[in-house]
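User: I'm putting together notes for a lab meeting next week and I want to include a structural view of one of the chains we've been expressing. I don't have a solved structure, so I'd like a prediction I can at least talk through. The sequence is below, exactly as it appears in our construct file.
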Amino acid sequence: MPKFRGRTIDNQPAANWPAIHRACAKHDQFIVEVRAYDEAKEISLQQMRWLHCKNGPITILSEYMGVSKLIAELILKRKCGEEFFVHKIDGETVIASKTMLSVKDTTVWIDNIFDFMDAIGCPVQPPDPSWRQNQDNERRRNDE
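Assistant: Thanks for the context. Below is the predicted structure for the 144-residue chain, given as structure tokens.
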């Protein structure tokens, strides 16, 4: 087995290897992927996880309207993110994938989702209770 050596910031371990070993030991076969940390990609993954989790807007809207999660996602794309997702190509309406969004655009879409869900009487709780306050503080800092 090859040995790998590397250096991390402040000489801290790059991963929680004991936890990785425990998780891998539960399976007959596994692959461990090592990739460079990308803050924007990590934030985007967290946003997508929240959108689809059991307390996320896609699941809640699906249950509220009695439709599939796919239909709920399409409704949120059209009602809350038309500028990002809905495109006309040769006279046909095309709904784009959410994986193409930047972190900034996804954040705007999520903000629109909160407003839409409140408006239809189906509010969604943000993953971080201080989300709106943090967002307002960030906007103020950007305006300065």
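A couple of points you could mention at the meeting. The chain has seven helices and two strands. The two ends are 55 Å apart (CA to CA).

User: Perfect, that's what I needed.
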